[in-house]
Design goal:
Blueprint: H1 4-21, H2 35-45, E1 53-65, H3 71-85, E2 87-91, H4 93-96, H5 101-105, E3 110-120, E4 123-131, E5 137-146, E6 150-161, E7 165-177
Antiparallel strand pairs: 1-2, 1-7, 3-4, 4-5, 5-6, 6-7
Amino acid sequence: MMSKGDQYLAALTLLVTLGACSDNADTNGDGSVSRAERAEEMRRDGYLAMQPGRWRMAFAFTDIDVPRLGEQEKASIKAQLAKGASGLSCLSAADAAKPGPDFFGGEGAEDCSYKQFDIAGNRVKMALSCGMGDLGKAKMDLDGTVGDADFQFDTGLEVQVPMAGKIKLKGTMTGKHEGECRGDE
């Protein structure tokens, strides 16, 4: 039997844990995290702004789930998606404090929106939904750390491709600041 003190400590631990897990930047409950909601989340949790300028991003996929495809086809899809999602981006001074979802969506991503955006210091958890042109739609979960000159995320990506259906991938996304924008990003 637990003493009253132990019961109190267990209840307090549970409340703190639940409070930490329920931190959600979508304060109006519309299912999307707006720029204003992200700014408030960053202000509240003390986010360290990223450096403006040229950023190189790279994806590496370690696991793929595609029904009805052999290992060679899966390896080819992983390589093509990693190449297409990796690239350069120019982050403006205004966006460095509040990066838009297209910045993390990778090259070719369009019409991206945040579904989740939680920050605790330099620890970030995001969920994005992006259009991928002719490839269809993509949902991406990012969980990792962001510094002023680099970031690294564990990534879960789900791409809805018209011809192949749903493709699920796991891997990493890294980013590194490379100085001033050159105009070719």
